[in-house]
């Protein structure tokens, strides 16, 4: 085992620090007094180190000597990109995760919190899904590459604990959205792609064309809520087994309902069409947040309508710098 880190204020390295979730954590740390006295927080982007490359990963860890790591970096994308590039999602994510976890271990990092995703759960399952069911069957075909790579983080966390006593754990967010998301209509996540589509349709006076029937149901979590929860996990959560970080089952909405909230937030009054010739992906993947609730019964999630409105406002105000 590598040299152990001395006790003292945390030095937290956030991989994927320039992305949707990374920016939300940065906001909580810097704007909501999330940082404690003496702590240092470092937010990495792929420009600082390509974590697919072991040498660059080691160099980044040597440079910053973190005591704690929040591991967010991943090759991520929307449904249609996943369907086209399962091999790339599998290989890049396996490499990124192994490089980060093994380097953290070799350099004596005391805690790592990685990010899984609710879309890695078995396709054929009972609902609601919980943390014990991750490996119970094959994931949905559309994103099997990403899913298997992510599942291996959980396997690896257990192995680091079994062999070396490491406290490396993970959160399982449902669909995340918020400022700094990828709003690309082609490759973005569903909600952000729909915000961009609606914004464009309003500007051009055209209808909004939604891919699929609008029937699939999803639990959406606002990135700032997730940021707050990940910081709690880093400080307080002591299990190796992951925890689902999501709004409750009662807050699941259909894509159609989400589109209506976006239209309202952007004051879009045109027509909305649903293209049923395109794939819907998984019809639902309802996840239970009961475990999270046992730890944090009073955590308040931002109401979806309010969070969508704040995200739309951010997108309109930052259109020139937003990822589109
Ligand atoms: N968004 C969701 O709905 C969702 C849901 C569940 C789980 N998650 C998980 O949450 C984590 C964060 O996702 P996100 O939505 O914040 O993604 P994102 O906005 O696309 O950000 C991805 C981050 O990873 C970095 N990255 C990508 N490839 C890299 C590489 N080869 N080397 C180093 N850094 C690399 C990017 O750096 P650059 O900015 O330099 O490209 C960026 O900071 C991921 O692990 C994802 O799987 C996301």
UniProtKB/TrEMBL annotation:
UniProt-listed GO biological process terms: 'de novo' GDP-L-fucose biosynthetic process
Any GO MF annotation of the entry: GDP-L-fucose synthase activity
Stored CDD domains: GDP_FS_SDR_e (cd05239)
UniProt-recorded name of the protein: GDP-L-fucose synthase
InterPro entries: Epimerase_deHydtase, GDP_fucose/colitose_synth, NAD(P)-bd_dom_sf
UniProt keyword annotations, A-Z: Isomerase, NADP, Oxidoreductase
Function according to Swiss-Prot or TrEMBL: Catalyzes the two-step NADP-dependent conversion of GDP-4-dehydro-6-deoxy-D-mannose to GDP-fucose, involving an epimerase and a reductase reaction.
Species for this entry: Lates calcarifer
Domain NAD-dependent epimerase/dehydratase: 12-241
Annotated pathway: Nucleotide-sugar biosynthesis; GDP-L-fucose biosynthesis via de novo pathway; GDP-L-fucose from GDP-alpha-D-mannose: step 2/2
Gene: GFUS
EC number: 1.1.1.271
Family in the record: Belongs to the NAD(P)-dependent epimerase/dehydratase family. Fucose synthase subfamily.
Pfam hit, one: Epimerase
């Amino acid at each position: 085992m590598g040299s152990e880190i001395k006790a003292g204020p945390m030095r937290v390295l956030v991989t994927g620090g320039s992305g949707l979730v990374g920016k939300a954590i940065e906001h909580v740390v810097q704007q909501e007094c999330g940082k404690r006295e003496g702590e240092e927080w470092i937010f990495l982007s792929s420009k600082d180190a390509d974590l697919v490359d072991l040498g660059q990963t080691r160099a980044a860890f040597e440079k910053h000597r973190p005591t704690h790591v929040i591991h967010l970096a991943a090759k991520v994308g929307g449904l249609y990109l996943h369907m086209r590039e399962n091999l790339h999602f599998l290989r890049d994510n396996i490499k990124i995760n192994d490089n980060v976890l093994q380097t953290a271990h070799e350099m004596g990092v005391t805690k790592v919190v990685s990010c899984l995703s609710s879309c890695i759960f078995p396709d054929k399952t009972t609902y609601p899904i919980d943390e014990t069911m991750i490996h119970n069957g094959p994931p949905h075909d559309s994103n099997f590459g990403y899913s298997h790579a992510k599942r291996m983080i959980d396997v690896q966390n257990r192995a680091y604990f079994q062999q070396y006593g490491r406290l490396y754990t993970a959160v399982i967010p449902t669909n995340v959205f918020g400022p700094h998301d990828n709003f690309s209509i082609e490759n973005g996540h569903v909600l952000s792609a729909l915000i961009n589509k609606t914004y464009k349709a309003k500007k051009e006076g055209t209808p909004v064309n939604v891919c699929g029937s609008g029937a699939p149901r999803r639990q959406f979590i606002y990135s700032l809520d997730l940021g707050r929860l990940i910081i709690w996990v880093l400080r307080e959560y002591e299990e190796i087994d992951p925890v689902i970080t999501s709004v409750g089952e009662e807050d699941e909405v259909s894509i159609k309902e989400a589109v209506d909230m976006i239209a309202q937030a952007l004051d879009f009054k045109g027509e909305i069409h649903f293209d049923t010739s395109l794939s819907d992906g998984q019809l639902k993947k309802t996840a239970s947040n009961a475990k999270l609730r046992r730890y944090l019964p009073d955590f308040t999630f931002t109401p979806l309508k309010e969070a969508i409105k704040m995200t739309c406002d951010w997108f309109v105000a930052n259109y020139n710098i937003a990822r589109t």
